[in-house]
Amino acid sequence: MGKNARDKRPALKPVKKIELSEKNTTSRFVLLIVLLVIAAVSFTIFLFSLLNKDNGWNTISPSTNENVYTSEISLNYLLGSGETNATAEHKAIQKIYTEKLEEAYRALSMYQEFDGVVNLKTLSRSFNSEFTVSPLLFHTLRTMTENDNRILYYAPVFSLYSNVFDSTDDVIAKSQDPNYNYELLSDINKLLPYVMSQEHVRIDFLDDEKYIIRLFVSEEYQGVLTDLYIEDVISLGIFEMAFVVDHVADALGAAGYTNGTITSYNGYTRSLGTQGQILSSNIYEATEDRSVKTIARYSYSGSLSMVSFRNYPVTELDSLNFYVYDDGNMVSPYINLYTGLNQTLALNDMVFYSKTTSCAKLALTTYAYFANASLMGNDINSLTSLGIYSLYAIDGTIFYNEASLISDSNLKVLVPGYQKSYAKN
Description:
This protein has helices spanning 25-51, 86-108, 120-124, 135-144, 155-159, 162-165, 170-176, 182-195, 219-227, 240-254, 359-370; strands at residues 56-60, 73-79, 130-132, 201-207, 212-217, 260-264, 268-273, 279-286, 292-300, 302-310, 323-324, 330-331, 349-354, 388-394, 397-400, 411-413, 419-422. The protein is α+β, with helices and mostly antiparallel strands. The protein folds into three domains: 53-110 and 237-272, no CATH class; 113-235, no CATH class; 278-311 and 347-425, no CATH class. Strand 4 (201-207) and strand 5 (212-217) form a beta hairpin. The protein has eleven helices and 17 strands. Helix content is 31%, strand content 22%.
């Protein structure tokens, strides 16, 4: 500051020194001790409530958010119904739940690879080499390919739709949609003969005891994949969470924990048994404007696998598999396996359930019945011979094919004007 410059800083008031009285030192010290005790007690109560669980239905979360399906799956369990108290039961179940979610993620995830682990993502990009994989991945791939099912190999076709699901507006979506973009449609037509052919792509199960497998891909098909810049040859797609639900359910059941339900965001449910508890599941229907209403309630007891297929988005995670155009048309994960194209389905909602099979096998068995543009020749009732039953609505009528659902206590209509009908085989 120059010597002739004006000091613009505000004048400060003189500081006053205040002598504190020492008369109340003891009182202040006692008050401090009291506040510390209150804080300690409050923290103890909070910690106790956090660590101790009440009897009854509780949602159990994994103990970590890393490398697990945190948002995709939910476990609800009736604590206190076993031989131990609710807190000990919660701790034991959470441990198994977390371990099995981690195992599933490390084995089945297409988003991440792990050092020293050959998971699905690793295998999908490694052609014609033998690998030892985890029992979970081995049996998952075995299930996916049973009965000559080829949907595992449609990953390249499904990948051509991924940019549609990531689109932020209709112009971008249509430029990435094979239903509008004929260049992408041409790519699908190039892929279909290969994904359908065991001579060009297949999983070879080389050793059932050592879990050794090989992803065989012909040189001709490799050339097509290279030309189209496609890396992943196999994927579980929408069936991934069915296998995760089964993996957790089987582990909990084997450990004697059978009083809960496991549900994924995209409609896969396993009831573990629930010891005589009556559980219920809502049956939904989407209207023409895609609003969703609850039309009935299905009640059941005991162990059960359930698959709720729906052709519309509900959760935030559904944005990974759906795109809705402004005019109401939609791109979904349900494609015609012969044309590779998205199609308008006969129904927007269909529920399948069984007490004799897993979620994954149930989903794979029933997928073609739902992903169909017409119900003509779609003999759903023939599945009852396999112990598989269905629920769906058409024009205000809820069709079912399990005789026990005649009773309203097992299937109750909730919307005035709706009725239910027993569709005999």
